[in-house]
Design goal:
CATH architecture: 3-Layer(aba) Sandwich
CATH topology: Rossmann fold
Order of helices and strands: EHEHEHHEHEEEEEEEEEH
Distance between the termini: 12 Å
Radius of gyration: 15 Å
CATH class: Alpha Beta
Number of domains: 1
Strand content: 25-35%
Shape: globular
């Protein structure tokens, strides 16, 4: 069973539907015991960094997320859910992230011909450990919706990158902890393979 954490930050249904398509059972929950007893955990999310951290704190989920991530079971952050794993974001200066991994979330710099938010398909360059990308082929295409991007402190945590006016750390892998800036649940066959790989861990 995969627990999908509900903290009023959106994109839950599309994640659930993707796993249903794969025949994988999930539960959408904010119950501590249900999260801690799950074999794997996902922190999805769309929206603003500060609002999301406020919701995690309001629902008493901050410590649960940390306990789960540090507990060794497979943990996946998606989009905003990945950004929250880091120390903070330029979107809401002064608001601390979960600090499970080291790095900062920065605004995509304005550049001629590039629209912000970045919405659309980009190819990835995998690097180092890229467990979730096994079987996705070379330069897999995935779907992004974001205005802020990760700059990880440790390059060894980076599993995939993309370019959109700046080098974006699009996926991370640190032991049992995984993160995708893009939306695997909206990335067609490639995204389904990524989620299948996570479910198989």
């Amino acid at each position: 069973m995969i627990a999908i954490i509900d903290y009023d930050a959106g994109n839950l249904c599309s994640v659930v539907n993707a796993f249903e398509h794969l025949g994988v059972k999930t539960v959408v929950t904010r119950d501590k015991d249900e999260i801690l007893s799950a074999k794997k955990v996902i922190l999805p999310g769309v929206g603003a960094f500060g609002d999301a951290m406020e919701n995690l704190n309001r629902f008493g989920l901050t410590d649960v997320v940390k306990e789960t991530a540090f507990g060794g079971k497979p943990f996946l952050g998606i989009c905003l859910g990945m950004q929250l794993l880091f120390e903070g974001s330029e979107e809401t200066p002064g608001v601390k992230g979960l600090s499970i991994l080291k790095g900062k979330i920065l605004r995509i710099p304005a550049s001629t011909g590039l629209k912000i938010p970045h919405m659309g398909w980009n190819s990835l360059e995998t690097c180092g450990k890229a467990t979730l990308f096994e079987g996705t082929g070379s330069d897999p295409f995935v779907y992004f919706v974001h205005s802020y991007y990760l700059k990880a402190e440790d390059e060894g945590d980076v599993a995939a990158c993309t370019e959109y006016g700046v080098k974006i750390h699009a996926s991370v892998e640190h032991g049992n902890i995984f993160g995708c800036q893009f939306h695997p649940e909206k990335s067609g066959k490639t995204g389904l393979k990524i989620l299948e790989n996570f479910a198989a861990l």
